[in-house]
Design goal:
By secondary structure, the protein is of the alpha/beta class. It has one domain: ATPase, V1 complex, subunit F (Rossmann fold), CATH 3.40.50.10580. 36% of the residues lie in helices and 18% in strands. The protein contains five helices and four strands. It is globular.
Length: 119
């Protein structure tokens, strides 16, 4: 897998997943597990959490994209992830705009710098 690089995984609504799948990110691993989950109204929080954890444990995934409103459902799991790979990036959806104050990665990054660092 190192020769091929790493995959992008997506946890998102139907529009987000469809867009990324049309862009070519869809893959199945050797166990025939996809690198995406379409979250619908009937998708349980447990299923979202288990899928996210399975993406974290896969060595072929380098980036996990997740709609921010879905990330809010499993915030405790996202905040517990401290490794740099796979990177977890929260993205907006068509119906839920991005709110930087809710993004745990951005909050961590802000805590690493002071205003003097940018002078």
């Amino acid at each position: 897998m190192a020769a091929r690089g790493k995959l992008i995984a997506v946890l998102g609504d139907e529009d987000t997943c469809t867009g990324f799948l049309l862009g070519g990110i869809g893959e199945l691993n050797k166990n025939r597990r996809p690198n995406f989950l379409v979250v619908e109204k009937e998708t349980s929080v447990t299923e979202i959490e288990e899928t996210f954890k399975s993406f974290l444990s896969r060595d072929d995934i380098g980036i996990i994209l997740i709609n921010q409103y879905i990330a809010e459902m499993i915030r405790h799991v996202i905040d517990a992830h401290t490794l740099s790979i796979p990177a977890v990036l929260e993205i907006p959806s068509k119906e839920h705009p991005y709110d930087a104050s809710k993004d745990s990665i951005l909050r961590r990054a802000k805590g690493m710098f002071s205003t003097d660092d940018f002078r």
